[in-house]
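Write out this protein's structure.
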Amino acid sequence: MRQPWRVAVVGGGIAGLAAAVRLRERAPAGTEITVYEQSGALGGKLRTGELAGQPVELGAESFLLRDPTGGESAAVALIRRLGLAERIVHPTVGQAALVIDAGLRPIPGGTLVGVPGDLDRVTSVARPVAGADTDDGRPLVGPDADVSVGALVRSRFGDEVVERLVDPMLGGVYAGRADDLSLVTTMPALARTARVEHTLTGAVRAAQAAAPRAPGAPVFGTLAGGLTTLVEAATTASGATVRRNAAVRELTATGTGWRLTVGPTRDPELVDVDAVVLAVPARPAARLLAGPAPAVAAGVGALEYASVALVTLALPQPHLPELSGFLVPSTEGLLIKAATFFTTKWGHLRRPDGLALVRASVGRYGEEAHLQRPDADLATTVHRELSAVLGTPLPAPVDGHVQRWGGALPQYAPGHADRLAAARAALRAAHPTVALAGAGYDGVGIPVCVRSGETAAEEIITALGGSAR
């Protein structure tokens, strides 16, 4: 392999940028890294904007501070390496609510993404089926099996726990339904204990015990100044050449590496590299792999995605409850599926003039027609529904923003992890200098995407002959 290496990172979201940083940290000195981003902005779903004169997140809002084992999350570790640790801030209000029967009820504690370890603690929002979570003398889930979260929880706790608790919790993260989402991919800690424990309450408790958290310790964090500061710092640290508005349209094996076809059809640019990190959603990745790895492309490209819109309103001195926000079960019949009271949840965003920033998430998988409505219509509907849920008319907004994220959230059907493992094994065997990274493969959330990008970079380094430092 000639030196220096040339590595292309296709996709400038946080997974791609994390891959570029890891390449710079561990690949031989002089490695040429180029990030190709088809849009005009880096960061993917990390995007800080401005509303009513202050920063506001238009995409991802925060990150988990701990990984599933209880250690520091990959996002926090990256933030520390980038010198941004002093910017980490935590929520000042952590309690959220559920909309139940058109009113707000606090989300019960002691659950794992809504799945209770103690049924008595959730009776304020749902009535578990009595006596269904019995010990049948065998583990809940077979050693190689995957099931939907909804199917497992319904069989043990009944419909109300799914519809009023688990579904809105998962819907807030994935914009999908518990009955369609993979246990292994969306709740890996519970999946591991469900292969050992004989009851679901036992599995939840075992998963919680495996990653203990000190009472009162924060779960989430964000960065003062906005998450775009993470994007900017990662870009700088990577030392990569960044190509914005540069769509990679084709990927061709050359015998010694890869040829990228970049830019418009009538005036393409051909770029030769030694290795490629594909840090793009599943369908664009599948299109690029269709030529060199058609079977892999077919497996990867089957993943479905949900679209969402985030509607943020700046409200002058509204009467808001002391909550971080609320989640909405689909059975409530509202367009809103979740809301966050930014200036209540995050103390560093509070303003002396009492102006509040409230963000609502709109759109569930299979209901994309609602997102065809104009921005003004979405904002008006959100304002009306917020007023109804809070039981008081909210003041007219002085500013607002509608951010649409088309095809943003992967819908991991049961068996996703096995399908992905098979695709990666086939890709590694045939083309070890191509690696996949991002939410479409390993899960949503900033820490998961960071770890996915870093792992892809390490695979590339190994495939090219190992690290020189």
